[in-house]
Amino acid sequence: MRDLLTLAARLGVTVHVAHLPEPYRGFYDHERCMVVYDFALTPIERACVLAHELGHAFHGHRGRNDPEAEAAADAYAAGVLVDPERWAQLEAMGLADIDIAEELGVTLKILRVFVKNHLTRVCGTTYTRARLGRGQFQHAARWAS
């Protein structure tokens, strides 16, 4: 959580906790540069919601109910929360997704977004999305076809 609060500060976003009405778990207010998340969230939910809302801040999203913005915020959260090296270790052990998510401290949804948006599978090897430059394929795990 400390890393997320540091990230929020770097983005110029303040973070607040409140009791939110159902079904809201959190929101980002672009004009006030603030994120609010629900007081009743579990620690894992809190981290995932905060990272998601920081994704909206990072991308400068202003509106609501935009599926593309929601998907971009989820992808940002997954990239921030999931350590590719740790994911590769757990995936190589053959754990179920729900167990991997629990070990990584993320929701199953965020784990699945990570797999969908941040991984590439090539010839039996899984890579995190290529980064330009040295070490671009440093996180790899074998998987059975």
Automatic annotation (TrEMBL):
Residues 10-112 form the IrrE N-terminal-like domain. It holds the Pfam family Peptidase_M78. It comes from the Bacteria. This is Zn-dependent peptidase ImmA (M78 family).
